[in-house]
Each structure stands twice: as structure tokens, then as C-alpha cells.
Amino acid sequence: MKIxxxxxxxxxxxHNLKYEPESKPSFDPIKYCLTQEDEYSLELSSAGHExxxxxxxxxxxxxxxxxxxxxxxxxxxxxxx
Length: 81
Hints:
The chain is mainly alpha-helical. The protein has three helices and two strands, in the order αββαα.
């Protein structure tokens, strides 16, 4: 299974994000995961946003100690993320 990652432009946008210590995590009930304002940019492409959301969901699996195979996003895909 090949995973489409950030394209070159989106990767540069993500790399240039600055850590904001005052940024507070918020819970996204649709994705069922925590996010922070300093973890994303509105400048990402649609594909970049989708990939970032998948990463957040995979991170949520890890934080909650939920096997990837038990969730909708799916085992093999999440494990490769």
C-alpha cells in the first residue's frame, strides 16, 4: 500500500510552522482527536489537509492505546502513517 504524503509545497508549509507555546489543544469531535492551532496552516492543499487529518487520527490511536485495526481508518494504512 502506497501512502500519498505531503507534496513538496505542503511539506515546506508544515516545516515552516512555528511552535506556539501559548497554543492550547482542542478536541475535534469529528476526527475524535486533539489538535493545536500551531499544527496546521490554511495554506495547505486539500490533499495536504486530508493527510494531516489522517496523521492526527493515527496519533489519537496511539494516545488512546487503541489498535489501529479497531478503528474506521483501518489497520494497515494507520500503521504505515
